[in-house]
Structures are given as structure tokens and as C-alpha cells.
């Protein structure tokens, strides 16, 4: 065998026997660990004679200086709004704002109805709606019994029953909603009108209401 063959055979045998020796040989003892002894830094002793400083107690928000109670107690704000105009969300938002600004205040929400003529007409619209739908669907039996000649509009509507009924339904609902709406958002403080959307053609602002209500609360005589 030449040197190359001896090296290829002997090297694996050497590694094999060295692994066996290391396997059965005892492990060396662990090295002692060094502990860093940290000396505590002495803290200055607090004097037991030190007394806490007394600060004046600040006035709580929403309490009057006399200490009677919440600044809004005994006052009522009424918000009359148009329910069919989807103003309820605005009214609830204003209610929450006033109750947070003036604790103890009573905020009442109510519907502001439209004028009497509009309310009367809004009651007639559903009747006309129902009559038109019945005439389109069963007019061929109703008109002969009444002895009335159907108008030309009846034949035009009957040619497309589904479209005619849908159009009458949407149109009547729109007209009824218009007649039932007042467009009002009126704010009263203890029965006194302080803001009117019917006059201003806009909604009140948060700072505007705060000033209007706060000024009147300040002028309210204490009971």
C-alpha cells in the first residue's frame, strides 16, 4: 500500500478511536464563575418631619361657586325637530353636548309637526295611492260596473302595470314625506326660543349653543 492509501484508511480509524476516547473520558470541572458584587448606593434618609404641602382644592367642573349643585340643575332645554327630515341624529348630538357642558340640565326632545293644511293633505295621499293601484290592477271590472268610460291615461298605465304601480308608489311616498316634514330645529330654554332653524335656515353650532345657553343659565335667579 502506498502512502495515499494508508492516509485514506488510517485517518478515519484515527478519528473513530478519538471519538471513543472522548466519549468515555470524564468531563473537566466547570470554571468558577465570577460574581460582580455591586455595593448598594446609600440613599439619603428622608426626614420624618417633612410635611406634605397643602394645595387649594380646585373647583370641580360643572359645580357652581356657591356649592348648590350642578350648574344646569333646574333648567330645561326643549329641542323640537322634524322627525321625518331625519333630524333625530342632530337632536341627540346636541342633547349629549348640552348635558356634558351643563351637568344637571334637562334636555327634552320632541317632534315639531308641520302646519295643519300639510298634515291634512298628507292623510289624503295614501287614499289616492291605494285607489290608483286598484284602478290599474282591476279597472277592467270596475269601470264597466260604474258605467264610466276609462280615460286614455288608464290604458297607458295599464300597458305597463308593474312600472306604473312602482312609479305611483314612489311618487306618493315622496309627496307624503314632503307634506309631513316641517324642516324645524327649534331650541327653547325654559320655554324661551333661543334658536330657530326656520328663521336662520341652518343648524346651531356647538359654541353658539354653549354661549346662548350659558348666558341664560348665568342670568337665571337662584332659588
UniProtKB/TrEMBL annotation:
GO terms for molecular function: thioredoxin-disulfide reductase (NADPH) activity. Pfam families: Rdx. Residues 28-50 are annotated as: Disordered. InterPro entries: Selenoprotein_Rdx-typ, Selenoprotein_T, Thioredoxin-like_sf. Residues 1-23 form the signal peptide. GO terms for cellular component: endoplasmic reticulum membrane. This is Putative selenoprotein, Rdx type. It comes from Medicago truncatula (Barrel medic). Keywords: Redox-active center, Signal. One of its GO terms (biological process) is cell redox homeostasis. The keyword Signal applies. The gene is 11437317. It comes from the Eukaryota. The keyword Signal applies.
